[in-house]
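=== Structure Prediction Worksheet ===
Name of assembly: unnamed complex
Input type: mixed (protein and possibly other molecules)
Chain count: two
Listed entries:
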Amino acid sequence: MIALQILLTALIYSFILSLLAMGFTLQYITLNVPNLAYSSIAFFCTYLTLTFSILKFSPYTSLPFAFVLGGTISFLLFKFLKLLKEKGMSIVGLMMATIVFDLLLYAGMNIYSDYLARNLQIYTASFSLVEFDFKILGLPGILFISAGTCLSLVILFTLLLFKTKFGIAMRAAVENYALASTQGIDVDRIVGIAWFFVGGVAGISGALYPLWFSMDPWVGARMFITIFAACILGGIKSVYGSIVGGSIIAFSEIFLSYFLSFFFPWVWSYRSVISMIVAAVSLVKMPEGFAGYISKVRKGG
Amino acid sequence: MIEIFLDIIILFCIYAIITLSLNLQHGYTGIFNLGLYFPILVGAMITAYVPGRLAMLLYGIDSRLDYSYNNPTVIDILKNRLIDDPIISITLLFVTVFITIIVCYVLGYLTAYPALKLPADYLALFMLCLSESTRVIGMQTDWLTGGVFGIMVINPFWWLGQNSYYGLSIFIIIATLCVCLIINKVCMSPLGRLLKGIRENELTAECVGKDVKKVKRQVLSFAFVILGLAGVLHAFWMGAVVAGGYTRVDFSYWPWLMMIVGGAGNNLGVLFGAFILVLIRRAMIVSKHAFSFLPFSVVWLEPILLALMLMATLMFRPEGILPERPQSIRDYMKKVLKLES
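=== Predicted Assembly ===
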């Protein structure tokens, strides 16, 4: 029974983490700026799920709203970064600019959490919405919804990227920003739409999170490193690599620490360190990740 | 009133040390380190572990008592002993500082090897990973830092009785002045100019025969030592170490804002930025009763304030209030080559 719970946790975690990692990578390759506010955007939208649950709606009703909210915040961040980039801001300045949004969202989450606690007497410093979920064949609905969302978004993204003019324009913009502009592509519009889409995906991932895991306003800060680890392991310049990275990190964080805890019970407490160590080691030993390694092997390097 | 004033001064001192170290790393050398709280936390952890246990050993306190698990009892016993023993108290303080210097230097040197191979954004995230890992380890390790509840530490100035608070304050102020002088000396020396040269163009510095990697490694190790010292001072000042409290907002983002607001590459500007922001933060806490009408805790206005100030600075004055002043050739000739114009 415990093993099944662990398997479910690992599966749900891997779907959510893969989505988040995919989004982070896409934002990174479009603007070459690591978005430090990314996980906060995702987990800010978690409070929409909480609000819908408080209002007695199904928590899944919040998903389209989370998409719009996440997308809008992400788009605003893109506009801010674009403004600073036009002023000639360095990569350091641009990363600091993403911190501005991270802090605003972090404060926003805590303020809303405080407000609910004081005015509605709802304890939101740490919450889970597992009891609001439905079941299919004894399995939680979140398993099917997160798997379905992850797979459908990956398929949608692939079709968008390879079968539409928008996708071709986006790939051109990613390859060479300046050259794409000279070819008549409205690069800023393309990248802006990509950031909206990615923010929306982050919003959906965050909205799904409390249906299985415990949520608090600090989850965003903690999860950022895990998302980053997944991206680095998969390959920070490969969207599909980051999905693989997300799954590996999720399974290693849950399964590896679970099995190791049979022999060393203290390991379970340190499970979040696993992803941080993976991120640090990958950065140094394999900065291009699995995707870079595979492409090197393909080229016969 | 004097307590509030002293509180502001001490907080300024601790942030001044952190921000000056950051300025040396980023403002002078161009090392983009977002994980400032890694060495700070290491310094705090050493303070949580070393002086208390060493004192227990020196006084032969009942070995069945564990410093971490019986922390309040042990601290009470140690207070009674250290209150009459200034020599041991001061020795414990300096032993802690000495061990922190050694450990942080080694950590800085070891971290620099892989970290400095990375581009700026990866380096920032690598340091963030290290810091966050250390924080999680600190929060989960009861024997080291008391886990999530934290651990109380000794005050090396208990022997001053009622004035122990002032004794510790004076020590922190003197330590800050020493750090300011040392960092300023480094920045004004030919090494400071080399660091600026590396920041501006590493390739050019390498072309004129400078070992850029070695210099950067030394800067990072030195900065780690300074940050570790800030961790020790902060832990002694707080009288306790709670690893979970060493967050990236408080010990990385705030110092970055202080440097950016003050003016990166200018030590005076950085000190000014630190002072202004410490004052604003403390003013908010002291006047929190004025915000009692808000339906949420006033502490959450702090990150909003930080974000808005950062945003305004990046947009309207990215070089800071007191920007770095380029040194004229005439000054350079006078100061470095000792030539008269």
